[in-house]
Design goal:
The protein is α/β, with parallel strands linked by helices. It folds into three domains: 246 residues, 4-Layer Sandwich (Glutamine Phosphoribosylpyrophosphate, subunit 1, domain 1); 198 residues, 3-Layer(aba) Sandwich (Rossmann fold); 141 residues, Glucose-6-phosphate isomerase like protein, domain 1 (Rossmann fold, 3-Layer(aba) Sandwich), CATH 3.40.50. Helix content is 36%, strand content 22%. The protein has 19 helices and 26 strands. The strands form five sheets. Strands 3-2-4-1-10-9-11-14 form an eight-stranded antiparallel beta sheet, with helices on one face. The protein has a six-stranded antiparallel beta sheet with strand order 5-6-7-8-12-13. The protein is globular, with a radius of gyration of 25 Å. The protein starts with a strand and ends in an 18-residue tail after the last helix.
């Protein structure tokens, strides 16, 4: 969602802010702005420049401005309250123009506070909930900015992250986090604030992750952190980020998405190398205490959103097969509101790339309130969900910049496969001999993924024929039904075509009405126990003149003869087939979007991490 950056140090703040905001563009936004303290004079208003549209528009507007200030804040806005416009862009100012605030999240009681502030003479210039907060800080100010900041926050309801600057105290940034992510980058004689680590990686790899309801007072040389309303400071660990800024660059690819698709063999290989030791699956976070808890589990709930939910659906099949116990998969926003029936013998697995997804975080807290054991599968080290879960397994996929998730999905599937086998062995449902066979198949996957990517030219050729189509149908069964959903989602996200994924057995219960000579149908048909059933579905499509595009096991001549186009994958065990069948679907979505001249990495209306409801 919204991107926040802040800087204080010895450099000119403006170039740092713009550079940092550019590295947060993947989060999705509709406007941007910066505020700097000019020379730090209390009698001088803050310098603020804002603009609707992409950062390029803001940079053009800034051309010719000279800012010597060494402290400032910046923001990319994803609209919630108020339409995308310059007046609604952040940062927002108070009446005196001595306070400037950037914000990610939602202030739930803003309307009530706004009325009171207006009655006392405050003048508002935007439609946002954010502006209420900065006016409230002004109203609370009695000579101490940090005290006014905390007093104002105490009156606000909702979930949000703030960074404040004030010309009254030009040598500090003031920071607060509740649910929405914020990280402090620790430098030498300078410090940085950001919504996500890529923004500050060009400057430092040393990070402090704020916990909920922590407020920070940050100068160039010092970071002080407190629990809101408490006077004694909190000691926080500094986390060193292992990946570098080079991994967050395109590396010669035209888009981050294509780069990340092609990184998938290395991602899977790295996970297997880290988790497999002498024929055994090991997780460094699963100690004897966790093992004892896992042995008592009687039911598993997989909870996640978007692409991660599709990973959860695949995980449901994996855990059911290997663990032989009841497994549910739920969308996080539904799980948190359905008053889920869970108890201390349930395992709730939260799957999230960012570790900050608002609904998944709420689902985690709901599960813990009901005494369930929680395990997070997360990519972002030090994220809120990773810290709050009882146990975490990191996917270590590296930074994923493209909004449409690709390598994070494959990383999630790989970790779920490893955990399912580990869990099944722990429960005595999978023999050591069979574990060895499964590991043998797993070790083949990196090369098989490379081979699948090598077939991308066939996918691209197919996309040239169908990129003008506006409706697509995706069908799969069993382990590959979730990939029908995922393939359709990828196409919707980045090409804006209308696409639906269905369990193929449901075709005659409605979707078959859509099939005619103009309807492309992508059938995910690797060798599996439902192979013959999928073949029957394809025959039904052909009988109605539908266009059949099939993902097949290499060498499958039967399905090839029934299809206009085929995307072959190497043969693997059915349990691992989703890791291969999804790749042609990712590439197909990518090329359709490119041929339609879409903004592949930053599709409209979408954000990388959904940190508000």
């Amino acid at each position: 969602m919204c991107g926040i950056v802040g800087y204080i140090g010895s450099r000119k703040a403006l170039p740092v802010l713009i550079n940092s905001l550019e590295r947060l563009e993947y989060r999705g936004y509709d406007s941007s702005g910066i505020a700097c303290i000019e020379n730090g004079y209390p009698d001088r208003p803050l310098a603020v420049v804002k603009e609707k549209g992409k950062l390029l528009c803001l940079k053009e507007k800034l051309n010719g401005f000279e800012f010597d200030g060494q402290a400032g804040i910046g923001h990319t806005r994803w609209a919630t309250h108020g339409e995308p416009s310059e007046r609604n862009a952040h940062p927002h100012l108070d009446c005196s123009k001595k306070f400037a605030l950037v914000h990610n999240g939602i202030i739930e009681n803003y309307a009530e506070i706004k009325r009171k502030l207006q009655q006392s003479g405050h003048r508002f210039s935007s439609d946002t909930d954010t502006e209420v907060a900065v006016h409230l800080i002004e109203a609370c100010y009695r000579g101490d900015v940090f005290e006014a900041f905390q007093k104002a926050i105490a009156q606000l309801k909702g979930f949000f992250a703030f960074v404040l600057i004030s010309s009254y105290e030009p040598h500090h940034l003031f920071v607060f986090k509740r649910s929405n992510p914020l990280v402090i980058g620790v430098g030498k004689g300078e410090n940085f604030i950001a919504s996500d680590t890529p923004a500050v990686l060009p400057y430092t790899n040393r990070m402090i992750y704020l916990d909920d309801n922590e407020v920070a007072k940050v100068s160039a040389k010092k970071v002080e952190i407190f629990q809101l309303g408490r006077k004694s400071s909190v000691k926080k660990n500094i986390v060193r980020i292992s990946w570098n800024i080079g991994q967050a660059k395109k590396g010669g690819y035209p888009h981050f998405m294509l780069k990340e698709i092609h990184e998938q063999p290395q991602v899977v290989e790295r996970i297997l190398k880290d988790r497999l030791h002498r024929g055994k699956i090991l997780f460094d976070s699963i100690d004897s205490r966790v093992v004892a808890r896992l042995k008592r589990v009687s039911k598993v709930h997989l909870v996640s959103c978007g692409t991660a939910y599709h990973a959860a659906l695949v995980g449901k099949y994996m855990l059911s097969e290997c663990g032989r116990l009841p497994v549910d998969a739920s969308v996080s926003s539904e799980f948190r509101y359905e008053d889920p029936i869970v108890n201390q013998r349930d395992l709730v697995i939260l799957i999230t790339q960012s570790g900050e997804t608002a609904d998944t975080l709420a689902a985690l807290r709901e599960a813990q309130a009901k005494k369930a054991f929680t395990l997070a599968i997360v990519n972002a080290v030090g994220s809120t969900i990773a810290r709050e879960a009882d146990c975490v397994i990191y996917t270590h996929a590296g930074p994923e910049i493209g909004v449409a998730s690709t390598k994070a999905y494959l990383a999630q599937l790989t970790v779920l496969a490893l955990f399912a086998i580990f869990f099944g062995k722990l429960r005595g449902q999978v023999s050591s001999r069979y574990v060895g066979k499964l590991i043998g198949w797993l070790l083949k996957l990196p090369k098989q993924i490379k081979a699948t990517l090598a077939g991308g030219v066939l996918v691209k050729r197919c996309a040239t024929h169908f990129y003008r189509k506006r409706n697509f149908l995706y069908l799969g069964r069993g382990y590959n039904f979730p990939n029908a959903l995922e393939g359709a989602l990828k196409l919707k996200e980045i090409s804006y075509a209308h696409a639906h994924g269905y369990a193929a057995g449901e075709m005659k219960h409605g979707p078959i009405a859509l099939i005619d000579s103009k309807q492309p149908v992508i059938c995910i048909t690797p060798f599996s126990k439902t192979y013959e059933k999928m073949m029957s579905n394809i025959e039904e499509i052909r009988a109605r003149k539908g266009i059949v595009i099939s993902v097949i096991t290499r060498g499958d001549e039967k399905i090839k003869k029934l299809s206009q186009y085929t995307f072959p994958i190497p043969e693997t065990k059915e349990i691992f087939s989703p890791l291969l069948t999804v790749i042609p679907l990712q590439l197909f979505a990518y090329y359709v979007a490119v041929f339609n001249k879409r903004d592949v990495d930053q599709p409209r209306n979408l954000a990388k991490s959904v940190t508000v409801e």
